[in-house]
Amino acid sequence: MGRINATELSWSVKGHRLLDNIEMAAQDGKVVGLLGPNGSGKSTLLRLLAGLRRPDTGAVEYDDTSLRDLSRRVLARRLAVVEQDVTAHNHVSVRQVVELGRTPFRGRFDALTERDQQIIDAALDRVGMTDRQRQSWHTLSGGEKQRAQLARALAQEPREILLDEPTNHLDIRYQLELLDLLGSLEVTCVVALHDLNLAARYCHHVVVLDRGQVVAAGTPETVLTTGLIKSVYGVEVLVDREPTTGILRITYLAATAPRTADATAVTG
Ligand SMILES: Nc1ncnc2c1ncn2[C@@H]1O[C@H](COP(=O)(O)OP(=O)(O)OP(=O)(O)O)[C@@H](O)[C@H]1O
């Protein structure tokens, strides 16, 4: 388990500031939800956290080491990334995709060890893809691809995982299973989510982005208020607790256009 810390992160493209002075932290073993409307900067922030983009200003640290001081190989031994659209694998089997998770630990010409095979078996099992491991990647459904990508990430035995909307193709059962699984791993997770109820239920901490800025951060209870959701998403909601379980519940009532220009900053 590792700690991720981002301070004063900014990133611009062609003069447009897509991320502005982002501060966020993910503590050891916690699940941190990145929330915000379409285009608010969640994927961009995940790419900066993954070292796939260099910030214009600010820094990302894993534990106390700056991302700039971590080589790609060293980073790949601790950090797994599950991106939104993965179409790169074609004429390969599911198992071969999951095997890629072991790449950072192997020499270029080394065969997979017995231990590698056991880790791959366990990863396939955890996402319920053992039966499909010989199936060709390009024949998988969207949800099966997402589960196989998660298995690849688990095969890395990472300390941290970054996930970009990992539930968007999953049926409700696999949505719950995936988030249960993330919560049960001894891994620090930063996960971009659209479903506020899933975030409320599974995230220890949420960070809300709007137009490239953090407008709220804290526990789901403190952040996911009717006022915040209305100002950021332009949606009237009812926030209460489901009576039998006590789980925080957000009921969407109506879209109210337009969105408030600037959401009130909340931190805690
Ligand atoms: N390389 C780029 N060049 C120009 N614009 C970009 C680039 N990358 C991202 N953007 C823009 O930055 C904004 C943030 O995009 P990003 O994908 O991070 O949002 P998001 O919060 O993940 O959105 P969604 O919920 O729709 O997935 C968008 O308006 C997007 O069009």
Topology of this protein?
Layout: E1 4-13, E2 16-26, E3 31-35, H1 42-49, E4 57-62, E5 65-66, H2 72-76, E6 79-82, H3 94-99, H4 114-126, H5 142-155, E7 160-164, H6 172-184, E8 188-192, H7 196-202, E9 205-210, E10 213-218, H8 220-223, H9 226-233, E11 235-241, E12 248-255, E13 266-267
Parallel strand pairs: 3-8, 3-9, 6-7, 7-8, 10-13
Antiparallel strand pairs: 1-2, 1-4, 4-5, 9-10, 11-12
Core attributes:
seven-stranded mixed beta sheet; binds adenosine-5'-triphosphate; disordered C terminus; four-stranded antiparallel beta sheet; 268 residues; alpha/beta; Rossmann fold; single chain; 9 helices; globular; 29% strand
CATH superfamily: P-loop containing nucleotide triphosphate hydrolases
Strand arrangement within the widest β-sheet reads: 6-7-8-3-9-10-13
CATH topology annotation: Rossmann fold
Distance between the termini: 23 Å
Biggest sheet descriptor: 7 strands, mixed
Would you tell me the overall average pLDDT?
91
Q: Unreliable segments (pLDDT under 50, ≥5 consecutive)?
A: 261-268
Classify the secondary structure makeup into a structural class.
Answer: alpha/beta
- CATH architecture group name: 3-Layer(aba) Sandwich
Helices and strands, in N-to-C order? EEEHEEHEHHHEHEHEEHHEEE
Helix percentage range: 25-40%
Quantity of strands, as a count: 13
What small molecules are bound in this structure? adenosine-5'-triphosphate
Percent of residues in beta strands: 25-35%
CATH class: Alpha Beta
Tell me the Rg in angstroms.
Answer: 19 Å
Shape: globular
**Helical segment count:** 9
Domain count: 1
